[in-house]
Specification:
By secondary structure, the protein is α/β, with parallel strands linked by helices. It is built from four helices and eight strands. It has a six-stranded parallel beta sheet, with helices on both faces. A two-stranded antiparallel ribbon has the order 3-4. Strand 1, helix 1 and strand 2 form a beta-alpha-beta unit. Bound molecules: zinc ion. The site of zinc ion has 6 residues, from loops.
């Protein structure tokens, strides 16, 4: 597929805490960096997202006495999976993985910075109504088609892809440049939604200038 000047590569959460050795490590998570670099050479526009939580964030099991990581609870905005403390603002775990070399990225979008609301998607927080501002940014810059890569395939990548489709944008997930958590059948569920909503998937080898 030919990449054009109105395409954008959205690189999701390549942070130490999501990579091997991190607080919420995705298996083989750092293996996405090489294909992301391969894909990046074709794009004029690159955006990075960074999970960016307060120390007492509501999505942490540690904020809910008696609860453990990966349990689910009901918050006022709906069901929330509880995670180990991760990507706390200003910590090494929240830093981008040191092997990621995308210094020409034009925007770093931080998400999940409100203590009371988690944000998987780069477009809308988990209450599904609070906007991050990314849709307006893309619109004002005339960037229309989104290519997604990063961590984790079945959470932040998937939610971002589905929200972008909901906003009417063409979306392609670069499958070899993602890795999944796969919790409670999350991969099968997101792929069912990708098929229903028209989220395309391809590999970085399918891209061309
Ligand atoms: Zn998070």
């Amino acid at each position: 597929m030919k990449i054009t000047s109105t395409d954008v590569l959205l690189v999701v959460d390549i942070q130490n805490d999501f990579c091997p050795g991190g607080a919420l490590a995705v298996a083989d998570g750092d293996a996405v960096i090489e294909p992301i670099h391969r894909a990046a050479q074709f794009f004029q526009h690159i955006i990075l997202t960074q999970d960016w939580h307060t120390p007492d964030h509501n999505s942490f099991s540690s904020a809910h006495p008696g609860k453990r990581p990966f349990e689910q609870i009901e918050l006022d905005y709906g069901t929330q999976t509880l995670w180990p403390d991760h990507c706390v603002q200003g910590t090494r775990g929240a830093d981008f993985h040191p092997a990621l070399q995308l210094t020409r990225a034009e925007l770093i979008l931080r998400k999940g910075f409100r203590r009371a609301i988690d944000s998987y998607s780069a477009f809308f927080e988990n209450d599904r109504t609070t906007a991050t501002g990314l849709a307006g940014y893309l619109r004002e810059r005339g960037l229309n088609r989104i290519f997604l890569a990063g961590l984790a395939y079945d959470y932040c990548v998937a939610y971002s892809a589905l929200d972008a489709r909901g906003l009417g944008m063409p979306v392609v997930i670069l499958r070899d440049a993602c890795r999944a958590i796969d919790l409670n059948g999350s991969v099968a569920e997101c792929e069912r939604q990708f098929a229903a909503e028209g989220v395309e998937q391809m590999n970085t080898a399918d891209l061309s200038a």
